[in-house]
Write a structure and sequence with these properties.
By secondary structure, the chain is mainly alpha-helical. 59% of the residues lie in helices and 3% in strands. The protein is built from 11 helices and 4 strands. The strands form 2 sheets. Strands 1-2 form a two-stranded antiparallel sheet. Strands 3-4 form a two-stranded antiparallel ribbon. It is found in: Cell membrane; Chromosome; Cytoplasm; Endoplasmic reticulum-Golgi intermediate compartment. This is High mobility group protein B1.
Length: 362
């Protein structure tokens, strides 16, 4: 925003700024002539702001949000005035400063060093030129120093002529120098030193400060003290401090009294999370079907497998000897008969029922 802009936008205010503004208006409404010490006022505002709850601060935060919306809304339509840039461009007609003897030496020997060392960096080249200049004898430096002196004389003449042309700028610079000298004048009388403890105050001085209004402002801006808990032994008896009476245990005065420890809260969260994972697992299993129906192809494949098994068992049964005169032979015959009987039952069930359900183990 330009300086002196009549349409300059008012900046957005923070919640604390609105709070300070409200506090500033409080003593002024009750005591219009009260003189408030700004440093004490700002200190008390800061203390009061720290003790306020989030609910109390909410009013000022809402005001800050509304003011921010107002600022953004006005900023969209604001067009700043065209003004001069802060940094002034250099005058191309101004004479350039002359190079020193060392720079003249560098301009002569830099191409030679670059030709001998093509990959040398700018910093290393400058370092090498400095070493060469230091090792150069005084009589060898004289041509460069004489040339630099002539260039300096020419520059002083050119700058004097250039300064004569731009007298208004020179006058402004003179005024600025006078202002700086006045502002930072070392001969200006200093403030009196802080009195020592042994110094006696000057008697008979009267202050024009209104202490009543100042004290009233301090009371308005001050934070009320919390009352101490007390107890009364009788209806008409004495009052005693409850904290030092011994009736209340000291551990209840701790800051973390009644607060659940962090490790218990963490453990409860872990238990709750584990319970949620278990419940989700149970729900996912319940969503899956407990039984599934066999398709016609699967039913036919099972039926053919049962018949093939029956034929194998029956073939083994036919290969038994005619005489069953030992216990192993009897046991084998009995086992084969039971297997054949079970297979025949399964085949009849599969042939009788077209729709068959089996347990879903997936």
């Amino acid at each position: 925003m330009g300086k002196g802009d009549p349409k300059k936008l008012r900046g957005k205010m923070s919640s604390y700024a609105f709070f300070v503004q409200t506090c500033w208006e409080e003593p002024k409404k009750k005591h219009a002539d009260a003189s408030v010490n700004f440093s004490e006022f700002s200190k008390k505002c800061s203390e009061r702001w720290k003790t306020m709850s989030a609910k109390e601060k909410g009013k000022f935060e809402d005001m800050a949000k509304a003011d921010k919306a107002r600022y953004e809304r006005e900023m969209k339509t604001y067009i700043p005035p065209k003004g001069e840039t802060k940094k002034k461009s250099k005058d191309p007609n101004a004479p350039k400063r002359p190079p020193s003897a060392f720079f003249l030496f560098c301009s002569e020997y830099r191409p030679k060093i670059k030709g001998e060392h093509p990959g040398l960096s700018i910093g290393d080249a400058a370092k090498k030129l400095g070493e060469m200049w230091n090792n150069t004898a005084a009589d060898e430096k004289q041509p460069y120093e004489k040339k630099a002196a002539k260039l300096k004389e020419k520059y002083e003449k050119d700058i004097a002529a250039y300064g004569a042309k731009g007298k208004p700028d020179a006058a402004k610079k003179g005024e600025m120098l006078c202002y700086i000298e006045k502002k930072f004048d070392r001969n200006e009388p200093k403030k009196p030193a802080v009195p020592l403890r042994t110094d006696h105050p000057v008697m008979g001085i009267q202050s024009g400060k209104n202490f009543i209004n100042t004290n009233a402002a301090d009371v308005i801006m001050g934070v009320a003290k919390k009352p101490k808990p007390i107890y009364v032994d009788k209806r008409t008896g004495d009052k005693h401090d409850l904290e030092t009476s011994g009736l209340v245990p000291k551990y209840i005065n701790k800051k973390d009294y009644g607060v659940t420890p962090e490790y218990i809260c963490k453990r409860n969260e872990e238990v709750k999370k584990a319970q949620e994972e278990y419940d989700n697992y149970i729900q996912e299993n319940l969503k899956k079907a407990a039984m599934k129906r066999l398709s016609d192809e699967e039913r036919e494949a099972v039926l053919q497998g049962l018949k093939k098994n029956w034929e194998e068992v029956h073939k083994e049964f036919q290969s038994l000897s005619v005489y069953i005169d030992s216990i192993p032979k009897k046991v084998r015959k009995q086992r084969l008969e039971e297997e054949m009987k079970q297979l025949e039952h399964d085949i009849s069930v599969m042939e009788k029922h077209k729709i068959i359900y089996i347990a879903n183990k997936s």
